[in-house]
């Protein structure tokens, strides 16, 4: 064998070895789980995800938006592994349209509905059936998430109807795409009052709670979670187990959420 042929064989073997060492790790990598979560979960879920990464070395990608927007994106083929809704209706929609794995579904969290104002507000409101919200607005608008589709907006409208205040303010609503956008309208001073979750108010020091809606004035605020029907990512299942575990509970509670079924999960731990 002459020198030229030996060099050619050596180059081919070297190329094969390089291809093997670069391709094998790529094949072994597991894609980071993609979680679609209601906007109101951002602070708490970011903390849980960071904690999970510290403990496992694994990352999770989270996309936040209104629950209705997220499930519609999943319906259109978005490659989400997990869906966390801010109400039962949109999770039910996902189940009815075969978009989620029903066997992985459970209720994760609960929340409270509050009325907020800029943090320099000098008043509070007693939210009862005698609530005169129209007068409290003083010509301004009431910031709310979309009252026909976004969970926080739907809860808020239901509460105002139950309290007899809806007709007085329905023409004065500044509707936003999601609850965090409604929060921002008040934080920026573009609306004197807004209806958001207690956890949203806690996330922004530029606003304050001036009233809390009675729990019986609206349907229970429930956050269900489930893997999507198309997910086959083992890390997605692992993250789902983690956010249901006692390890995640403090992060949710620090933001003001109530963890549902926490005692049952505590009993499952060895």
What is the topology?
Blueprint: H1 3-28, E1 34-38, H2 42-56, E2 61-65, H3 67-75, E3 82-84, H4 88-96, E4 106-110, E5 113-118, H5 133-137, E6 142-145, H6 151-162, H7 166-169, E7 173-176, H8 179-187, E8 193-197, H9 198-203, E9 207-212, E10 222-227, H10 234-243, H11 249-254, E11 258-259, H12 262-268
Parallel strand pairs: 1-2, 1-3, 6-7, 6-8
Antiparallel strand pairs: 3-10, 4-10, 4-11, 5-8, 5-9
Helix pairs in contact: 3-4
Q: Which class of the largest domain in CATH terms?
A: Alpha Beta
Order of helices and strands: HEHEHEHEEHEHHEHEHEEHHEH
Q: What's the overall geometry? A: globular
What percent strand?
15-25%
Span of the ends, CA to CA? 67 Å
Overall SS class: alpha/beta
**Counted beta strands:** 11
Instruction: Name the strands of the widest sheet in spatial order.
Output: 2-1-3-10-4-11
Number of contiguous helices: 12
Looking at CATH, the homologous superfamily of the largest domain is: Periplasmic binding protein-like II
Average pLDDT works out at 87
- How many structural domains in the coordinates? 2
Major β-sheet profile: 6 strands, mixed
Architecture per CATH nomenclature, i.e. the level-2 architecture of the largest domain = 3-Layer(aba) Sandwich
CATH level-3 fold name of the largest domain: D-Maltodextrin-Binding Protein, domain 2
* Low-confidence spans: 1-28, 262-270
Give the proportion of residues in helices.
Answer: 40-55%
